[in-house]
Structures are given as structure tokens and as C-alpha cells.
UniProtKB/TrEMBL annotation:
Organism: Amycolatopsis nalaikhensis
Protein name (record): KR domain-containing protein
Phosphoprotein found in the keyword field: yes
Carrier domain ranges (all copies): 229-306
Organism superkingdom: Bacteria
Short name of any one Pfam family annotated for the protein: Thioesterase
PANTHER family named among the record's database cross-references: FATTY ACID SYNTHASE, SI:DKEY-61P9.11
InterPro entries according to UniProt: AB_hydrolase_fold (IPR029058), ACP-like_sf (IPR036736), KR_dom (IPR057326), NAD(P)-bd_dom_sf (IPR036291), PKS_KR (IPR013968), PKS_NRPS_Biosynth_Enz (IPR050091), PKS_PP-bd (IPR020806), PP-bd_ACP (IPR009081)
Keywords associated with the record: Phosphopantetheine, Phosphoprotein
Length: 468
């Protein structure tokens, strides 16, 4: 049986609750890549997921309802397959009732259902909100703290259990976002850790201490943070960084030779931007790199006062082609996986500021924007500035509160409520609507297709909508 750091992740059955959500589905894929025989996915709405070489079983149901967890375990262990692992990633809502139901009651149901057939390992997904606190997310923080206590309680009875307090997989005001692959890369270590709880987050301690000044934890960490192991002047550090990207010795990166003459292209420039942001906390505009900047220019840029990094666009996907720009990027992990073009995520700042920031990654149109109301507001401003906006793709977005002249460009709205679609109809001249697909994976695929410029045959022109 293949082992990942000594933990069985090979043949056998696995249960993933919240299996159609962002983290649940990513984990199911990871399990499939690591030799799972059968994966049982659970969500209230169910869904259609295929994973190559794996027997995927879908159990649609509310994990908090009596009997659903039993059905999951029965489906997993049918034909005598051993139950290797459980990933409890079901989550919903922000208020106490909605949050506790899947997380807390769901965990208890799974515990009861596996009493006679304990798995080799058990992971409950929680969030860093329980570690650091998170203003406005009290219900999530307390439910996640309960999950951690529950893991300790299970372990005191000799049962496996680890709670993973994940940091942000998408843009977050406090934590740096973690690419999906990076989160999944941590799983072997989590499984091998044999700890009741682990926290995995990209943390900029200085920023967190600034944003959450009353958390002594961050101040203590800040005192412990060592200077970057890559010492030296900014010139020397930049030379090492670009040498790595360009595949040459640091001495070959002359300070006064434009980097484009040393082989820097748009793809490397995007990578360089992310690497410089990590190293110096400064977001370099890609156009600056491509317009012939040399190391002298960059050293000056990274040492001069720069905009706070939290305002900088996040590189969610590298690549070539017209980028997809998400306002805000939170909640679109699965979408990014389906894109083949670069993708940048923006903080929920004002639309004017967002326009300034988007020009640092894409100076001119045509633009492809996605997200909520903010994406639409950015499109309105860009159009007023004479820029071309190919498409704005909105998901369950609230229409503008104040009346406005109809926006002329193409808007595709994925909505759950007809009322919202009618609200949008009043301010869009070319609106297409489509009901949000049942599972997150299908939604992600549809969003990626629209943003890549492949209009849906299923989207309904707004003229067919009627007032109730
Ligand atoms: N995404 C992140 O960046 C992030 C960061 C830190 C921590 N986390 C934690 O990781 C976990 C998963 O997050 P996520 O981002 O993957 O969430 P998500 O995308 O919203 O997915 C959650 C899934 O749970 C399902 N679900 C909700 N209530 C359920 C119930 N009663 N029974 C069965 N299934 C239910 C939902 O499907 P239905 O609606 O069809 O039931 C949904 O597909 C959560 O505990 C979250 O706090 C996530």
C-alpha cells in the first residue's frame, strides 16, 4: 500500500463531507491521486464528480440528520473495503445555528456512525478563526474551537482525530492566501503529525499584529521573527531571486541591463512579481518589469515607500493570455483551478482603488472581471474611462442600491434568487442569467468558461425574465 510519510493513503475507502465544496473536493482529488479505491462524497445537494480510477459514491444528505453518516459509512465499507480516512469539511453559514449544524452536529454523527468501524485517520476541517479570533466570525470560531476540543476528547478514548485550522485558501484581510496545491502539500505532514490540532496558514506576522493589535500571540511571534535568511543588500537579494527565475548565476544579472534583455518574458515577470512580494512585501507592477526595468530600478522600487502589501492584487494563477480579475477573490478557489489564463484576486477595497490596482497587473483592456457587486462597479468605472470590458461574471451578487443608467457591456449573472436577477436587469443593458448549478464544481467550471470567453448556451437573456 502506498504510504505518505507512514500514513496509509492508498487503497481503501474514504469519506469526505462537504465533498463538493472548495476544500472537500480538493482533498478528494488529492486522495484520488494517492491511490484511494473509493471516495464517498457528501453534501446536502449532492453533485456529479468523477475522479479517474476511483469509485466515487455520492450520498446527498444533511450530515447533521440522523442516518446520513450511517449511509456514508455503509457506502464506504460496502464489499468489505476498509475505511481508511474521514475528512469532515461540511460547513455552511455565518450564524450560530447554520454553522454549528454541519460542523458540530455533523462531527458527532460521524463519531457515532464509525463507533464499530473506526477509520485509520480522521480530519476535521476548521479555520484559523479559532486560533486567532476573527472579528464578525464568532460562530465559526466557536464551532471550530469545539471541533478541536472534540478531537482531543476522541483521542483520549484512543480514537484518531486531528483538527486542521486552515488559513485562507483565498484572499483574506489578515492572512496571506495559500495556493490550493500548497494546502494539499501539507496533508502528509498533518496525517503523520498525530496531533489533536494543527494550524496551517500563511501568516505575515507584522500585518496580523497591526490588524489584530490586541492579540498578544502576534506580538510574541513578532519578537521571535528572525530576519530573512537571504541577507545582503536589496541588489544582492534581487540578483539571487532573478538568477533563480532566469536560470543563470547571480553574477550574470547585471544591475544596469534591462531584465527583458536577460530573458525575462511575461510569464517570468508574473512569477517574479509573486517572488518579490514574498521576499520584500512589495508588489512590483508587471509592466515596470516588461518595460525594461533593471536591477537598479527594482532595488529603488522595493526600498522606497510602497503601498501596503495587503492592498496588492494576489496572484491566484500564473500563465499567459488575458487575465481574469476577481473582486473580491474570496470563495473562488475552485474556479481558479479551472482557468488556463492568469488570475488575480483583489481585496474588497473601493472601486476607484481597485481600478488603480488592476492597472498594475493589466494596464489596458479588454478586461474580464468576476466576483460580486464590486466587480460590476469596477466595470462601470473602466467603461467610463473608455476601456473595453469583455465580460463581467457575477455570482449571487446584490444589485446596486441606487438607480443608474444601464451598463452597456455583457454581464453574466449566476443567481439563486429570481428577485436578484430582476434587480440587475434594471441596470444592465446586456444581462444574461443562469441559475447557480447544484454543485460547486459545476459552478466553478461554468464561471471559468464564461470568464474565458465561452458564453453559455444555457444562459437566459434577461428579456425572458418576468416580474413576479
Ligand atoms: N475555503 C477556505 O479558504 C477555508 C479557510 C479556512 C478554513 N476553511 C474550513 O474548511 C471547511 C470547508 O470550507 P470550504 O471553503 O470548502 O467550504 P464550502 O466551499 O462552502 O463547502 C462546504 C460544503 O459543505 C456542504 N455542506 C454544508 N452544510 C452541510 C450539511 N449540513 N451536510 C452536508 N454537507 C453540508 C456544502 O454543500 P451543500 O450546501 O450542498 O450541503 C458545501 O459544498 C470549513 O470548515 C471551513 O471553515 C476553509
Amino acid at each position: 500500500m502506498p504510504l505518505v510519510d507512514g500514513v496509509a493513503t492508498g487503497p481503501g475507502a474514504y469519506v469526505v463531507t462537504g465533498g463538493f465544496g472548495a476544500l472537500g473536493l480538493a482533498t478528494a482529488r488529492w486522495l484520488a491521486e494517492h491511490g484511494a479505491t473509493r471516495i464517498v462524497l457528501c453534501g446536502r445537494r449532492g453533485g456529479d464528480v468523477r475522479l479517474s480510477g476511483v469509485d466515487v459514491v455520492v450520498v446527498a444528505g444533511d450530515i447533521a440528520e440522523a442516518g446520513v453518516a450511517d449511509r456514508l459509512v455503509a457506502a464506504a465499507t460496502a464489499d468489505g473495503l476498509p475505511l481508511r480516512g474521514i475528512v469532515h469539511a461540511a460547513a455552511a453559514g455565518d450564524d450560530v445555528e447554520a454553522t454549528w449544524r454541519p460542523k458540530v452536529l455533523g462531527a458527532r454523527r460521524l463519531h457515532e456512525a464509525t463507533a464499530d468501524s473506526p477509520p485509520d485517520w480522521w480530519l476535521t476541517y476548521a479555520s484559523a478563526a479559532a486560533l486567532f479570533g476573527s472579528p464578525g466570525r464568532t460562530a465559526v470560531a466557536t464551532a471550530d474551537a469545539w471541533l478541536e476540543a472534540f478531537a482531543r476528547w476522541r483521542r483520549s478514548r484512543g480514537l484518531p482525530a486531528t483538527t486542521v485550522h486552515w488559513g485562507a485558501w483565498t484572499a483574506d484581510p489578515v492572512l496571506d492566501s495559500m495556493p490550493v496545491a500548497e494546502g494539499l502539500d501539507a496533508l502528509p505532514a498533518v496525517l503523520a503529525s498525530d496531533l489533536p490540532s494543527v494550524g496551517i496558514a500563511r501568516l505575515d506576522v507584522g500585518r496580523a499584529a497591526g490588524l489584530l493589535p490586541r492579540r498578544p500571540f502576534f506580538s510574541a511571534l513578532q519578537a521571535d521573527v528572525q530576519p530573512s535568511p537571504a541577507g545582503g543588500t536589496p541588489h544582492e537579494r534581487l540578483a539571487v531571486l532573478f538568477a533563480g527565475l532566469l536560470g543563470c548565476p547571480p553574477g550574470a544579472v547585471a544591475p544596469d541591463v534591462p531584465l527583458v534583455e536577460l530573458g525575462l518574458d511575461s510569464l517570468t515577470a508574473t512569477r517574479a512579481r509573486a517572488a518579490v512580494e514574498r521576499e520584500f512585501g512589495v508588489a512590483l507592477p508587471v509592466p515596470l518589469l516588461l518595460r525594461g526595468a533593471d536591477l537598479d530600478d527594482l532595488a529603488e522600487y522595493v526600498t522606497s515607500p510602497a503601498e501596503p502589501v495587503r492592498a496588492a492584487p494576489r496572484v491566484l494563477r500564473e500563465g499567459e493570455g488575458t487575465p481574469v480579475l476577481l473582486f473580491p477573490s474570496a470563495g473562488h478557489v475552485a474556479l481558479v483551478e479551472h482557468l488556463t489564463v492568469p488570475c488575480y484576486g483583489f481585496e474588497p477595497l473601493g472601486p476607484e482603488r481597485c481600478v488603480e490596482l488592476l492597472r498594475t497587473v493589466q494596464p489596458t483592456g479588454p478586461y474580464r472581471l468576476g466576483g460580486g457587486l464590486l466587480a460590476f462597479e469596477v466595470a462601470v468605472r473602466l467603461t467610463a474611462l473608455g476601456e473595453r470590458v469583455d465580460v463581467v461574471v457575477l455570482v449571487d451578487a446584490t444589485p446596486p442600491a441606487t438607480p443608474m443608467p444601464p451598463y452597456p457591456g455583457r454581464v453574466v449573472l449566476f443567481h439563486a434568487e429570481d428577485d436578484a436577477a430582476l434587480g440587475w436587469a434594471a441596470c444592465c443593458a446586456d444581462l444574461h442569467v443562469e441559475v447557480v448549478p447544484e454543485d460547486a464544481e459545476a459552478l466553478a467550471r461554468r464561471l471559468a468558461a464564461e470568464l474565458a470567453g465561452h458564453p453559455s448556451p444555457g444562459a437566459t437573456p434577461v428579456s425572458t425574465l418576468e416580474e413576479p
